[in-house]
Design goal:
116 residues; alpha+beta; two-stranded parallel ribbon; two-stranded antiparallel sheet; extended
């Protein structure tokens, strides 16, 4: 069986998500393909079971390189975001100045009581 779930973590408490993934990993037959915004899955699955999306539309998916078998994939993924070191970029850098500017614009609209 192949089961595909978009946003498996939607409405599920983080610890429970980890428990569900652990049960799937140990006893499910077939393949589970899912997306998640919660990084708990990376703590529960073996590195060979996880494929990451990239920012490159020509090479959309990859496995993390140099991730140790005994290491937490969550830590490796976060390190990859901050330091790089992979063949493909997994996260386009956030422009925090632009985010701050957007919040200030929204605040001004709310204070002035108008919408742009």
């Amino acid at each position: 069986m192949c089961l595909v779930i978009d946003e498996l973590d939607s409405g599920i408490y983080e610890y429970l998500l980890g428990e569900l993934i652990s049960v799937f990993d140990k006893s499910a037959k077939g393949q589970l393909i899912f997306t998640s915004h919660n990084l708990r899955a990376l703590e529960m699955l073996h590195k060979s079971s996880v494929i990451f999306s990239t920012t490159n539309p020509k090479k959309r998916y990859m496995r993390l390189q140099n991730a140790k078998t005994n290491k937490n994939l969550r830590d490796s993924y976060l390190r990859c975001i901050t330091l790089g070191g992979q063949k493909e970029e997994v996260y386009a850098e956030t422009d925090t100045v632009e985010i701050g500017r957007a919040f200030r614009r929204v605040g001004k609209v709310v204070r002035d009581g108008r919408e742009d």
